[in-house]
């Protein structure tokens, strides 16, 4: 089922301007820019809690990256071998778009960082929930459209990455309430 879904999404509007949009959403520079803008806006909106907000975002990113890339990818590769990305495993049916990654497909680091960060954002600013969820859905779509991830790569860790964001907020509250 994973292969059919990613193939469908990869072929959907393939060769149109959506390919450029999909590449743009997934670019590391774009993600860093969006996250930097979010942190700056959060700091401006919660001036009194600047250190708390920055600490929560950095902690969420650090936890999700550590668990995703260092934890899962290293442990899984050691135990089961690399899970090839869809465009590599199904090169005759799935066409890659954008930067070609060759590391393990599972889990999606792009989604790990996105979900952890938007969880912090939603917990601190509930009014932005629809926009944050839209951004996460666009990221999930772009990772599949680009042929980089299966739906299970994106979904399997979602609970863990939400947990990373929640833990970051809880720990940040403890650190900054102690001062």
Fold and architecture overview:
- There is one protein chain.
- The protein has 179 residues and is mostly helical.
- The protein has one domain: Vanadium-containing Chloroperoxidase, domain 1 (Up-down Bundle), CATH 1.20.144.
- Helices cover 73% and strands 0% of the residues.
- It has nine helices and no strands.
- It has helices at 2-11, 17-26, 28-45, 50-80, 86-89, 109-124, 129-145, 151-155, 158-177.
- Helix 2 (17-26) packs across helix 7 (129-145).
Number of strands: 0
| Domains (count) | 1
Separation, N- and C-terminal Cα atoms: 51 Å
Which CATH top level class fits?
Answer: Mainly Alpha
What is the count of helical runs? 9
Helix and strand composition category: mainly alpha
SSE inventory with pairings:
Blueprint lengths: L1 H10 L5 H10 L1 H18 L4 H31 L5 H4 L19 H16 L4 H17 L5 H5 L2 H20 L2
Helix pairs in contact: 2-7, 3-4, 3-6, 4-6, 4-9, 6-7, 6-9
Quick description:
The protein has helices spanning about 1-10, 15-25, 30-45, 50-80, 85-90, 110-125, 130-145, 150-155, 160-175. The protein is mostly helical and about 180 residues long.
């Amino acid at each position: 089922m994973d292969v059919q879904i990613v193939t469908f999404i990869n072929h959907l509007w393939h060769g149109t301007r959506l390919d450029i949009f999909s590449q743009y959403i997934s670019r590391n520079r774009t993600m860093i820019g969006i996250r930097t803008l979010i942190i700056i806006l959060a700091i401006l909106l919660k001036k009194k809690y600047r250190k708390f907000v920055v600490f929560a975002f950095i902690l969420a990113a650090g936890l999700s990256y550590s668990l995703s890339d260092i934890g899962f990818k290293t442990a899984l590769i050691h135990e089961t071998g690399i899970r090839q990305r869809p465009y590599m495993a199904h090169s005759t049916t799935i066409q890659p778009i954008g930067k070609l990654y060759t590391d393990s497909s599972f889990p999606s680091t792009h989604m790990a960082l996105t979900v952890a960060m938007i969880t912090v954002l939603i917990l601190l600013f509930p009014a932005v929930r629809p926009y944050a969820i839209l951004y996460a859905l666009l990221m999930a779509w772009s990772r599949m459209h680009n042929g980089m991830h299966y739906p299970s790569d994106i979904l399997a860790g979602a609970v863990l990455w939400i947990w990373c964001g929640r833990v970051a907020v809880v720990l940040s509250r403890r650190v900054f309430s102690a001062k």
